[in-house]
Structure formats: structure tokens, C-alpha cells
């Protein structure tokens, strides 16, 4: 198993606002994540973990510092290149699912492939495959509002995976779900980790974090703890 | 992302919210249709007025004494008399075909059984018929030039007067009394359509010499109707007649001519001016309705984009470029407003087939691209501008919206 870092954060700072009102969300984060690792980021609310996640997913740009994704310095990319990185390198899973309403599950899963320029036929096959992987192939024609929370999140996972990204990011993926649905989602993540996917998950729930191989604790914009857990699987 | 994919997402966006799309469509439709229709109504009524004036005869000039009044009995060197008319007619003016003097009065006309009050009495020459006026003899004959010379008691009467005085039989060859003075009916005018207050069929036309001798006196005539050789010669004829009259009447100061010359073409010009201002007025009303329609579209578009800022955020998070998002919203807005606009044009064309308050609307060709262009521009601008703003945000900003 390769140990070359897929993620490398180098002294990342994030400041919102200016002068007196400036909020220092991140105060110098330096972290590496190896390919195939399953990392949980924990921390109280306001610790800066969501800010960190948005930076990792290229949804936001850091005030200073360097972020290397697959060895490429993302902080220097332009808008168009960033869109491409979001499309190809990152699969993002949100707490509130963020499916596009009035579009059925299949169309939602196809979206990233459309922006990736994949042909229609191949798109359909890959989207169905991804839906099948999360056990929702039979719900392909359902719109989000016709699905339960757990099912919606599984569609979102299928959407995150369909482009075969090098990094899967999940921001409180089980925050809006009951325990049964949470278990469904977590077992999907377990499987992905077993397949060698790199996963970074944000949570404040212990039972979610303990499924990961490594837990980072963030507080006041700094990483205060970094520990390996027992579940590290070797292949 | 290919153009085809952009088109597909746009169609999906339009069909996703049918009510919203229908409202946008309706706003554009009403705006476009009302602009085209209102301008068409203005144009139609202008054309109606113009054709009404053109039917008066575009070859004719009318000379009226100004200030003095037509049928004064005092002969003066400075009034237009029959002598003056004959002098102009015989001067051999190049653009003048005929000069027809007219005297007018209004008297009671009676037969042995009935009578009719306030009948318009016109004393003139035979050239009056079909030349300077639209009156023509329907049955019987006109009086002749000889009748004018001799002052014959011959009369051509209007059809209404004929049936009023002689309800049972033909008026031809009968005798009528004009203010007690006997005349023979030699002809009856063809019936004319009533266009104003006065009935053009309630009239007696007789030789000018007879009318002057019996009623109005040998003074000034009411009007001189001058027929030009053709409609293009009207301005030239007007010049010739004016110069001639100034000489004959001894006018030294041309700013103080004791007569006015009017022609159908000057009337036409006046009517065109007023019709144009009428069209401008309707155009202003139409522009307001286009503006109101545009504001409606703007509202729907703004609400749509605000509501969809989050969707834009999601799409950006999944790797949509700014161009892809702009393309989608541009196509959506353009498709909706174009569709609405074209439906509006169709509605306007159908609507213009119907007569509106007696006016047949005539669509102005330029109003179609104008109305369509403006409404599509408004729709596209307000559909795309907020979308462009959202597309320029960082994905996380767009996602946090609402």
C-alpha cells in the first residue's frame, strides 16, 4: 500500500472579515493524509472543522497556506481548473444531502458526469452502477422528496462516487439521520475504505469517528490531536 | 459540456416548475401582444382617416374668401365673383383643368304635397358633377352650360329629397318650389354615403346664375373649386391660382390675402400629423404595458434565481463551471421569453383580424421585432444577471444561501 500523501495541507489559515471583526477560523493547519486512509475529523462546533472540510473540497479558498491535492497545489488554480478538480478529484457528501429537487435519483447521480463531459450512454450505465452499489437501483426514477433521508444520503453517496474520485469528503453525513440509517451509511463507508478509497469524514459523534482509521481533533482552528485507531485494516 | 447538454438541462429546468414557467411565458405574451395590437389599432385608424380624406378627391383645391364670408350681396372689386372665376378658367393656366364657382344657401323646398326645410341649395356649373365633387347624377341629366348662361330653372336633387318630396312616384320631370320659386327636376343624384352631420342626399343643385338671381344675388361666390390636371399638379395649380387671384383682386400684400386655398392634400397632411401623434400616444401606452410585462418577467426570473442559488451551489460543488451554469440559465431564459414572445405575436396577429371599435387594426411591420426584441432582452437580462452573480460566488457561499 502506497503511503504517498493524497492530501497535504501546509500552514493553512482562513480568516473571514477584516480588522476588528476578523474571525480566524483556521490558524495554521498542517496535515497529510495518505492514499487509502479513512480519516475522521472531530471537534466542537465553531472549531473550524467545517471550514477545513470546505477547503478540502475546493468549495472555498484559503486565505493563506498551500493545499496539495494529489501533489498539485490547488491554492494556485483558477476558477475553471478548480471546477475540474471538484468534478474529477473530489466526491462531496453533505449533511443536508443537497440533491437537486425535481430531478430523479438517476439524473442527480448523472450530474457530475454531465459536467465531466461523459457521453449519455456511458453516463447512464455508470450512474445506474453507482446507484446499484448503494442499493438503490430500483429507486432510480424517484425524486428526492419521494425518498427517505437515508435513501437520499445514499443517492448523494452514489453521486459522490460516480466520477471515481481520488478523495471522498463527507461533512456530517449522518447528522440528519436516525441510527438505523446512520448504520447503513457507515457500513457503506466501511466497504469503501476496504476497497482502498480515501475518505475524510467530519463528525462530532464518537460512534461515527471510531469507525475511521485515524481521528484528527480540531479546536480553535488548530489540530490538537491526531491518533490512529484499532480499526486500521491492512490488505 | 456540449451545447446539446446545456439545452437539455435548460429544458429540464423549464419543465421542472411548470407554473413558474407558464407565468413567465404569460407575462411576455401579454407585453408583446399588447404592444403590437395597440400600434396596429393606431395605424389602422390613421389609414381609415387617410382613405376617407382621399375619397374627397385629391385633385381639387378649394378657394374660400376669408373674413368676408361667402354669399354677401355687396359686389366689391375685392371679392371672388363669377367674373373672377371665368377669368381664371379662361386664363389658360397650365395645371388647372376646370374652375367651378359655387354659391351656397339653405332654404325650404316643397312639392305640391310635402315640404322639406333647411335643404342645402348649391348654385354651380355642370363641371361640378364628378369633377370637383364626388356627386354624380344617378338618373336623368345634369343641367347644361347653356342652362347656366340662360339661368334656366333646372334642378338636380339628392335622393333623400326626391323620396321626401315625391314618396309615391319618380321626381324626374316634376316641379319643386325652392322658397316659393318653381324649378324643374331634371336629374337625381346617385345616393352617397352619409359621413357627417349633414345628409349629402338632402340637396338641390342648380345653375349658379339662377340661384344668384333668385336667392343670393350677384356678389361674391362662396367657394371656387379648382380641379387640377392631376393629383401631382395640385401644388402647381395652387400657385397659379393664388398668383392670378392676387392680380385680379389687386392684392399687394400677399400676407393679407382675402382668401384661403385648401386642398385635400393639405387636409391629408394635417390628418397624417394627427394620426401620427395618435399612434405615438398608443405606442406610449403599449410601451408601458411592455414595461409592466417586463417587470413581471423580471420578478419571476429574480425569484427563480434566488430560489435556485442553492442549486447553483450544488452544481458548482459537483464541478460545473461558471460557463455551464450561465449557459443553462441563459438558454432557459431565452427559450421561455422567446416562446412567450412568439405566442404573443401570434395572439396579436389573430387579434388584429377583428375590428376593434370600428377600426380594422393594421400591424406595423417594425412593431413585431421591436416588441419581441425588447421583451426577450428584458427576460434574458433579468434571467441571466442574477444567475451570473450566483455563478461567480464560491460554491460554499451559494450553498449557504437560504
Task: Please provide a written account of the structure.
The complex is a heterodimer of chains A (235) and B (402). Chain A is an alpha/beta fold. Chain A has one domain: Rossmann fold, CATH 3.40.50. In chain A, 32% of the residues lie in helices and 27% in strands. In chain A, the strands form two sheets. In chain A, strands 6-7-8-3-9-10 form a six-stranded mixed β-sheet, with helices on both faces. Chain B folds into two domains: 3-52 and 271-400, no CATH class; 67-257, no CATH class. Chain B is built from eleven helices and ten strands. In chain B, strands 2-3-8-5-7-6 form a six-stranded mixed beta barrel, surrounded by four helices. The model of chain B is unreliable at 68-76 (pLDDT under 50). The interface between A and B is medium-sized, with 29 and 24 residues.
Rg on CA atoms of chain B, Å: 35 Å
Shape of chain A: globular
Q: Which shape of chain B, going by the Cα principal axes?
A: elongated
Tally of DSSP β-strands of chain A: 10
Uncertain segments of chain A of ≥5 residues (pLDDT<50)?
A: none
CATH fold annotation of chain A: Rossmann fold
What is the residue-averaged pLDDT of chain B? 83
Total number of beta strands of chain B: 10
CA radius of gyration of chain A is: 17 Å
Bin the helical content of chain A.
Answer: 25-40%
Q: Please give the domain count of chain A.
A: 1
Strand content of chain B: 15-25%
SSE order of chain B: HHEHEEEHEHEEEHEHEHHHH
Amino acid at each position: 500500500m502506497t503511503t504517498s500523501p493524497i492530501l497535504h495541507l501546509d500552514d493553512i489559515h482562513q480568516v473571514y472579515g477584516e480588522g476588528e471583526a476578523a474571525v480566524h477560523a483556521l490558524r495554521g493547519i498542517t496535515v497529510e493524509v495518505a492514499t487509502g486512509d479513512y480519516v475522521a475529523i472531530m471537534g466542537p462546533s465553531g472549531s473550524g472543522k467545517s471550514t477545513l472540510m470546505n477547503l478540502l473540497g475546493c468549495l472555498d479558498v484559503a486565505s493563506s497556506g498551500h493545499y496539495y491535492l494529489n501533489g498539485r497545489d490547488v491554492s494556485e488554480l483558477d476558477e475553471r481548473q478548480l471546477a475540474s478538480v471538484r468534478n474529477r478529484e473530489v466526491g462531496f457528501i453533505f449533511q443536508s444531502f443537497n440533491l437537486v429537487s425535481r430531478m430523479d435519483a438517476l439524473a442527480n447521480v448523472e450530474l457530475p458526469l454531465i459536467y465531466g463531459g461523459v457521453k449519455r450512454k456511458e453516463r447512464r450505465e455508470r450512474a445506474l452502477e453507482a446507484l446499484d452499489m448503494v442499493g438503490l437501483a430500483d429507486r432510480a426514477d424517484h425524486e428526492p422528496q419521494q425518498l427517505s433521508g437515508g435513501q437520499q444520503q445514499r443517492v448523494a453517496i452514489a453521486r459522490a462516487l460516480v466520477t471515481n474520485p481520488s478523495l471522498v469528503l463527507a461533512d456530517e453525513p449522518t447528522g440528519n439521520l436516525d441510527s438505523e440509517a446512520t448504520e447503513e451509511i457507515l457500513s457503506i463507508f466501511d466497504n469503501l475504505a476496504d476497497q482502498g478509497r480515501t475518505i475524510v469524514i467530519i463528525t462530532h459523534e464518537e460512534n461515527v469517528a471510531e469507525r475511521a482509521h485515524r481521528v484528527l481533533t480540531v479546536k480553535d482552528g488548530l489540530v490538537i490531536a491526531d491518533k490512529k485507531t484499532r480499526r486500521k485494516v491492512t490488505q | 459540456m456540449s451545447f446539446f447538454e446545456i439545452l437539455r438541462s435548460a429544458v429540464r429546468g423549464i419543465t421542472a416548475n411548470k407554473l413558474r414557467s407558464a407565468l413567465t411565458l404569460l407575462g411576455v405574451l401579454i407585453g408583446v401582444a399588447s404592444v403590437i395590437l395597440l400600434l396596429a389599432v393606431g395605424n389602422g385608424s390613421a389609414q381609415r382617416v387617410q382613405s376617407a380624406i382621399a375619397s374627397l378627391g385629391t385633385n381639387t383645391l378649394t378657394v374660400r374668401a376669408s373674413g368676408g364670408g361667402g354669399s354677401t350681396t355687396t359686389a366689391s372689386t375685392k371679392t371672388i365673383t363669377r367674373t373672377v372665376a371665368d377669368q381664371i378658367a379662361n386664363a389658360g393656366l397650365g395645371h388647372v383643368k376646370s374652375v367651378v364657382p359655387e354659391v351656397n344657401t339653405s332654404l325650404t323646398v316643397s312639392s305640391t304635397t310635402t315640404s322639406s326645410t333647411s335643404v342645402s341649395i348649391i348654385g354651380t356649373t355642370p363641371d361640378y358633377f364628378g369633377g370637383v365633387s364626388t356627386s354624380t347624377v344617378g338618373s336623368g341629366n345634369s343641367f347644361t352650360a347653356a342652362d347656366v348662361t340662360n339661368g334656366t330653372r333646372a334642378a338636380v336633387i339628392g335622393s333623400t329629397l326626391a323620396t321626401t318630396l315625391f314618396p309615391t312616384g319618380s321626381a324626374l320631370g316634376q316641379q319643386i318650389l325652392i322658397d316659393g320659386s318653381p324649378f324643374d327636376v331634371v336629374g337625381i343624384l346617385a345616393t352617397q354615403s352619409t359621413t357627417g352631420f349633414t345628409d349629402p342626399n338632402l340637396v338641390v343643385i342648380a345653375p349658379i346664375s339662377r340661384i344668384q338671381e333668385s336667392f343670393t344675388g350677384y356678389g361674391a361666390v362662396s367657394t371656387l373649386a379648382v380641379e387640377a390636371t392631376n393629383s401631382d399638379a395640385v401644388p402647381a395649380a395652387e400657385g397659379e391660382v393664388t398668383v392670378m387671384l392676387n392680380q385680379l383682386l389687386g392684392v399687394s400684400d400677399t400676407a393679407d390675402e382675402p382668401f384661403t386655398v385648401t386642398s385635400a392634400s393639405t387636409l391629408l397632411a394635417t390628418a397624417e400629423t394627427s394620426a401620427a401623434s395618435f399612434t405615438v400616444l398608443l405606442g406610449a401606452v403599449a410601451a408601458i404595458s411592455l414595461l409592466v410585462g417586463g417587470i413581471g418577467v423580471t420578478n419571476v426570473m429574480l425569484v427563480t434565481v434566488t430560489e435556485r442559488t442553492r442549486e447553483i451551489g450544488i452544481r458548482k460543488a459537483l464541478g460545473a463551471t461558471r460557463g455551464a451554469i450561465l449557459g443553462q440559465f441563459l438558454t432557459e431564459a431565452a427559450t421561455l421569453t422567446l416562446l412567450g414572445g412568439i405566442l404573443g405575436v401570434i395572439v396579436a396577429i389573430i387579434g388584429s383580424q377583428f375590428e376593434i371599435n370600428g377600426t380594422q387594426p393594421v400591424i406595423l411591420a417594425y412593431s413585431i421585432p421591436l416588441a419581441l426584441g425588447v421583451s426577450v432582452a428584458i427576460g434574458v437580462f433579468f434571467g441571466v444577471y442574477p444567475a451570473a452573480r450566483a455563478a461567480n460566488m464560491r460554491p460554499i457561499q451559494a450553498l449557504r444561501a437560504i
